[in-house]
Amino acid sequence: MKSEGEFVNQPDNTAFTQQRLPAWQPMLSAGIVIPLFTLIGLAFIGIGVALFITSQNIKVQELDYTGTATSSPCFQCSGLSIQNCTCERNFSLSELFEGPVFFYYGLSNYYQNYRQYGVSKDDYQLSGDTTYFLKPQSYCSPYQYSNNKPIVPCGSIANSMFNDTFRLYLLVNGSRKQVPFDGKGIAWWTDYNIKYRNPSPVNGSFAAAFDGTTKPVNWQKSAYELDPTDQANNGFLNQDFLVWMRRAALPNFRKLYGRITGGDYSQGLPAGNYTLQISYNYPVLSFGGTKKVVFSNVSWMGGKNQFLGIAYLVIGSLCVVMAIVMLIVYAKYKFPDNDDA
Amino acid sequence: MTWTSWCCWTKWRDSSESERKLVSNLPYEGLKPKNQPNRRYAGNAIKTTKYSFWSFIPMNLYEQFHRWANLYFVGIAVLNFVPAVNAFQPQVALIPICIILSLTAIKDAWEDFRRYQSDRQLNGMTCLIYSRSQRSFVERRWKDVRVGDFVRVLSNEIIPADILLLHTSDPNGVCHMETANLDGETNLKQRKVVPGFSSTNSSFEPLNFSSIVVCEKPNDDLNHFNGFLEEDRRKTGFGIENLLLRGCTVRNTADASGIVVYAGHETKSMLNNNRLRYKRSKLEKKMNTEVLFCVLLLICMCLIVAVGHAIWLQTFSSVPIYFVPNSDGTFTSAVLSGVFMFLTMIILLQVMIPISLYLSIELVKMGQVFFITQDADLYDEEKDTRVQCRALNITEDLGQIQYIFSDKTGTLTENKMVFRRCTIMGTEFPHEENAMRLAFLAGEMDTDEEVIYQQNRRPPLFSLEEAQDGPEGANAHLPGHSSLHGSRVTAGAPSSRAFSSPLETEVIPDHTLVQLMEEEEAKPYLDFFLAMAICNTVVVSTETARRQRANERRNSSISWSPLECLEVLFGRGTCFQRLSMSLTRNRGSLSEPIHMDPTDSPVYDVPTFSGSVQGPDEGVNSPSNCRATTGRVQAGSSSVAPEEVCYEAQSPDEAALVHAAKAYGFTLLERTPDHVTVRLPSGKVLEFKVLDVLSFDSIRRRMSIIVRHPRSKEIIMYTKGADSGIMERLQNTFEDRRRVKSQSRDVAIKTQTDLDMYAKDGLRTLCFAKKVVSEQAYMAWQVKRQEAMSAISKKEELLMDTADDMENNLTLLGATGIEDRLQENVPETIQALREAGIQVWVLTGDKLETAVNIAYSCKLLDQRDLVFTFNMENKGACKTMLNGILQELLRNGSLESEASIGLVIDGRSLSMLLDDDLQMQFVQLCTRCRSVLCCRATPLQKSRVVTLLRRRLKVMTLAIGDGANDVNMIQAADVGVGISGQEGMQAVMASDFAISRFKHLKKLLLVHGHWCYTRLANMIIYFFYKNVAYVNLLFWYQFFCGFSGTAMIDYWFMIFFNLIFTSSPPIMFGIMDREVSAYMLLQLPELYKRGQHAGGYRRSTFWIAILDAFYQSLVCFFVPYWTYAGSDIDIFTLGIPMNTVSLFTIILHLAIEIKSWTVVHWVIMVGSVIVYFVVSLVFSALCVSCNPPSDPYWLVQEQVADPMFYLVCILTTVVALLPRYTLHALRGTLVPSDHLKARQKDQLPPHHRDRWLREYRSLKELCASFPSMSSSTVPQDTTQSPSTPTAPLSSSTRVQN
């Protein structure tokens, strides 16, 4: 309140209320943007070159094993009704495939981002809450109950889990030497440690915690016996399961299967002939999809990606061109008044 | 219930159809409510709240759901509960609507709570109600007052209800009240006790009151009230002059008592209390079409997805493993799925319809209104008022005005009347000394006096410290001069009287006239000045009231008020001395004061300058001086001494006349309903008995007062009025030539000549006439008059008829010319508005000559203009002339001739031109005129003109006025501006914006209007852009998820995005962005033109914004898409970079659009980005599985740890904004807009800038003076009309000054 009773209504004379705050008034004109364009252009070209070179250094080896072509070794497995089919694909590396090598399986035309599919899971169940074992959430419908038994893990995502398995052999002097895949730590750390939890064992038995439930329709094994070799890699904390549950963003995707890091292969895959043994379980022909495996090494920018480098180069060059255009425009059309200022 | 009481009841009800009957409550005191006779009338408790505590939620929701926007939201939310359709978790989809509803509800609740508080405060105020049991007035609260109660109001108390005045402490039965709370008029209004009650000089005894009060039903007319008291079949009529209105303050009267007739919501003030107006602005109307476009766009996009989905489903020959069957294992058919998908997409893309835009616009307008009302330039110190925005939602209309319709009196002029000249019995007295003094006051003086003059205009506050800082000055005594100076200084103190400055009210009597009067003591002069002094409604105020009011206004001790100063200093040397001392020191010597010392004239004998004779603390007679003399009056006698009169006039004209009369020694001393007291120059005091007052109305255009002369005992009627209202009623009319006495005819003719001369000089004229009424004639008339007075129906008409009967056969006494000075800066303002491309019209009720004169002086008309005057008696002539001018214009239809055409239209011609058959041509002509002036226009005509142009030309109109006669026009226009002036508050009440000076219009339109319009237009465009750009991300994703309505951005992030991250920047943008500085906008009014043609908000602008949004969303989607295509990225992790680049793009897009960056801009823009990262990180760290199947856990952390994320963000943002940025830059260089140029000039150093402005202006003037320069093919002499006027054209007068 002002002390002068006379001027109760007088507005405060502050810079804010009088809209006189000091202001920076940038004005876009050709002359001003030239340095900016040059700067952006040069920086982008630099980044682009770095990205491009990095990307060029990344090696990728892809092998399609869908078996659509009759000549394909997996042709006989691609039929719908064939169970427990195994096929092999041979390939050779002419030089060392530098490590660490990541091994992915890839699917195409597979819509993990389909809306109804995406919601078809029960997060509470997956976080180990046993009340949801017996009564899965309705999101899982119709993969909620099977033969009046609740499905664990319920829902379409779990049900459609990818179940091909791979073994890689290096042919050394005519004999096969298995290249070990390291399947540990391929899922997100937070998924493995925080988000997903297995139920506590009942009477010391992990399997007993799943009593009264049934495995998903398409599964051959129950959740608690996914990995017979490693007790810890079972249930919801199975790494492959975790990877699968993280739905792919786009219909053509790859998912990490394992890393080749162990023993002799810490430097990477040596040159030589390899055989990939595939136990072919997962049908994709029904929706016109393909399956492949991908060997790739990674850099700081992840997998091979030409796009970003090229895009940076293109945009960088464009900016430089724009800067030149602006220079011409500026020279020709600058304000006549600018010089008397 | 007995039969009789039933009868009674029905009778009561029947009679109450048209009137209200009430009796005293006292006999029924203590009875149960159902036995109270007045129980059906509203009590005095008021409730302006909309809601009660319990009904708030349902009622508020009900009201909110009346807006279609909210219904849309609810519909979407409900749709989301349908399992086949839902896009999100149903509960989550309710969040936006809940937030919007609750925000609005909180706002409503807060407003309602404040109303509740003020209600409670009002209801809890105390007043005195008569109690039968205690036989006295006891203190009760306002809400306990009921109709039929007897209430006593003490001096300076606020009246609790509408009370019929039955008793006052005044022996004459008079009570004064101040209606400032009601209409802002600060002059006192006189109220009288109901006839028959005034005689009871003894204390009023409510118990004896046994009459039945019959009055009309409650209505909102503040100036009209009717009814009668019935006692033993004797009826006593009463009217508005007997009613005390709720909300007014009793002044000048120790106590007043009466019976409550209306209470609470039925009081006139409450019925008048209408809420803020709601107008829909042009921009908003236009915006609604854009919203419809968005709806169409939304439907198109949804259709694309729906069809796409159906086709996609059919590409599969068998069922893919990722298809989810229905719970019964079947699959929905492709077509049905498509239909469902359509609905799902509507839910998903709902943000496309910018519902939050409506809320944002409201917030933006609140901010804009805040800044407008805060503008110190629009603050008027004299009245202590700032600009008021009464309509909150049409701020941006101020930036699009094309036509301004202005009133003249009080709007262009001060409405502070100054007596200039008079003509008595055919002799003209030019009052040259006075004219010289006024001219001298108006600024033609040397520096010394200028100081005083400025103090006079602008109220500076002489601080007490300043007055005291010269102790040696306080002791010095400067008799003789100090009073004069003192009075001048006091003139600076703010006053809300009709006159704020005594200098302007003072009149130096005309030399010759005074001599004449002395020589002859002639009766005509006596009569003339008597008429001037008594034929009015001016109330003489006493000191107590004045002092109390002054106290209330000035309750600060720091500001110097003459009164307090006196109270403090009285006896120790006067305030005036100190002040004059300090002034003297400041300005050097003042020993030779302003020269206005007519030493050789007898002027000093009249009381005007009595101050200098009577002593230092006696000022001149003026309102301010009244205060100065208070101390003495209090100490001394309380009798009415001549020096202490203060006049409370309802119209400034009257005050000017009374003051003028006083200057000639005819001092109005007292006015009561029964008598008027006047002191003559000889010192004799005459007390006239007032027999009747025929009050002024706009139809008769005159008023009369009938008095009985105290000496001759004659009944005399003095009449004052407009010349048209008087001349036709003169005794010997011109038609009746044979019986005309040559002298009176001469007088009439001479007076008419003088009147014409006055009008030409721009003076307002009033004629005075007199009539001696015979005793019998008066008695006969009196009977009729009484009948009319007590009539309930048609009372007004009857009264007017009786007045007409009396006012004839008048004898002309003379006429006066009163000057109404132009307000400051009016010509400059009009000039600037014109340059801004606004057509300024003046619609006035004044005479043609007066109006034309003012029009020239305020530069509405220019000397070079070709002026056509429509002053026709019949329609045929009107039509011929109209067509003639039009043809002429069409033939020479070059731009130059249009620019300089003025049109002056008389009221009668105007009504003909407004007829249906001439309308079109009239409008056609108007569009070609530079200025139009309508004189003698009635309020209805004014509004018709406004409506006509608004309808026919589809232009934005603004009407500005200050009086009740402008209300129609103000309401008819798109934007109504009221000037809070001398004529009360009715115009302000009806207006959308209220300002105190005409010159404020310039900044209000050119700066605030321009800003508000540009800001809001940009904000709206940006809002559309923002929503489309963001929502389209989801749309593009549909092509990669089988058109299944999946959102790759977690729903929570989407909500946050719209609600938190991107909501404040556009609002800030809409409130605070400043394209061009106020200085430049005022210097270059041309910049305003863009808004008039909706330059800031075209359809093309909208579509460009939408296209840009599409482009940007494509970039924001596909750059991340190609970066991550084929990788193992998961769905929501892909959404994070998209969401982020979208945020960057949207924020930086705004950054390109923002024209000036203040601290606030930086804080909000940078803050939004920071908040985005903080909130996203926190949210995605906390939400492990908080709302399945939403799954935001650790997504953001994953991304921000990845260098690719930043590379993607940088690239995308640059690519998305590159085109817009480049285009802006190119446009800024190649085709810079005027606004950009102005901004560039604004950034020059001030002297460069001003030099440029000067050069620019002189260039413009050069162009204007030689319009042929612009079109060199048609060289024209601008001082002549394009061609010789043809026959119809020759009837036009070319007004040349």
Structure commentary:
Chain A: It is found in: Membrane. Chain A: Keywords: Membrane, Transmembrane, Transmembrane helix. Chain A: It comes from Pygocentrus nattereri. Chain A: Belongs to the CDC50/LEM3 family. The complex is a heterodimer of chains A (about 350) and B (about 1300). With about 350 residues, chain A is of the alpha+beta class. Chain A folds into 2 domains: about 50 residues; about 240 residues, no CATH class. Chain A has 8 helices and 12 strands. Chain A has a 4-stranded antiparallel β-sheet with strand order 1-12-4-9. In chain A, helix 1 packs antiparallel against helix 8. The longest helix of chain A is centred in the C-terminal third of the chain and has 28 residues. Chain B has about 1300 residues and is of the alpha+beta class. A 9-stranded mixed β-sheet of chain B has the order 14-33-32-31-15-27-30-29-28, sandwiched between helices. A 9-stranded antiparallel β-sheet of chain B has the order 17-16-26-25-24-23-22-21-20, with helices on both faces. Chain B has a 6-stranded antiparallel β-sheet with strand order 3-2-4-13-5-11, with no helix packed on it. Classes of the chains: A alpha+beta (about 350), B alpha+beta (about 1300). Chains A and B meet through helix 1, helix 2, helix 6, strand 9 and helix 8 of A and helix 9, helix 43, helix 44, helix 45 and helix 47 of B.
Characterize this entry briefly:
Chain A has two domains: about 40-60 and about 305-335; about 60-300, no CATH class.
